[in-house]
Amino acid sequence: MEHNHTHSHLGSVAEQTISRLGLSLGLTALFVILESAAGLYANSLALLTDAAHNFTDVIALGLSLYAVRLTIRPSNSQKTYGYHRAGILAALANSTTLVLISLGVFYEAYQRFKTTPEVKSGVLILVGLIAVIVNLGTALLFRRGSEKDLNLRSVFLHLMGDVASTVGAVIAGIIIYFTHANWLDPFVSVLIGFLILYNAWGILRETVGILLESAPRDVDMQAMVADIKQVEGVMGVHDLHVWSLAQNLRTMSAHILTADLTISEGADIQRQINEIVFHRYNISHATLQLECEDCEPVSLYCEINESNHRHSETSYKTK
Length: 319
Description:
Strand content: 5-15%
Number of helices: 9
Structural class: mainly alpha
Number of strands: 3
Low-confidence stretches: 1-10, 315-319
CATH architecture of the largest domain: Up-down Bundle
Distance between the termini: 59 Å
Largest sheet: 3 strands, mixed
Helix content: 55-70%
Number of domains: 2
């Protein structure tokens, strides 16, 4: 009953996310057309840059929408973990497009610095204000849930980057209107490009870490082993692996050294360890193999301990 309830709840959340993504996708696509036309008319690189950034948002929203639809599919004999990594792949694609668009912005801004054209500041200000409203409204749709879902966070950062860039475009338009300093248009575009690149790098680093099955950065492996060894009956831990299927779905496997116990005693140890790693480290699935052997030198955790011990001794000698 609890298992079915969990899947029902996740399905309901996914349906709400799909509705928000669909609405944002439609609004953003319409605005890209408006902003592109306005940018060409006003001869504004800042508007064209923001339109290009918004176009990447259309791609990002489309990929995220498809990924969410995949993630709610049940696991099968070919995809025994289900489709949880679909959201990570979408986030990777989104962050890559952000990097590419920022490089394009830098090149175009360089060309504009060499020959600065006149900018129609009035159009820049008006369209920029509309962009702020549209981007902020769509971004707020994804604020809830973005902390625990890398796919949604990539969308949220895309849209919040748009908010910041359009605010910059409006400020540049106001200054150009009063001072005719047209060089501010490509200058703001460069700032927008760096903002895009900064957001992209954070998402790219995290998605690559998940795809490489790195341990989550907030999980202290040494502390986890110490916590597990506090369970009565646990004599040691080795072959320890912790990784993420998605940002909010962590799993682990480990060999647990014990005395020669009955099956029921071993099951109780497993239950206590599962509770510890779930409540303290947010690991929802743990595969534990109980063994009554000494720790072998080839075991992963033993090597980690030996490496840390040698590092500590070297550090002490150099002081």
